Amino acid sequence: MEYLTKNIVRETVEAIQIIDITDEVREFVASCGLKKGQLTLVSQHTTAFININEQETRLLEDMVIFLKRLVPKDGEYLHNIAPIDGRDNAHSHLMGLFMNSSETIPFESGKLLLGKWQSIFLVELDGPRPRRSVLMHISGI
User: With 40 labelled, which of 25, 49, 66, 82 sits at a CA distance of 20 to 30 A?
Assistant: First the structure.
């Protein structure tokens, strides 16, 4: 069994931004030379998450609209009374309650076993940020 890790690093430019990282993840899996195993993706943040969903422009727009309606930025949140980093971002943390900070995806023959319409996204909920990091950890043979 072999174990390898690598980070994907992105700058975000929107308050809520959905970034497709599928190609970079696929390239990493293919470059490892492993035949089968699993890949775990972990967001290293409390307001950025990993999501598997469909890559379709209007759907991605719908997702952003939905999140903004679900947890409005201007709500009366206790976290915003004295935020530890100066950001009024309680809404970002609350949106994160409905998301995953990690996903595990099996692979065979160096290819991710995703469904036809599935893509992998980094979901920014508290942007813009100069650096968001996703840890890719692969284990396989």
Answer: 66
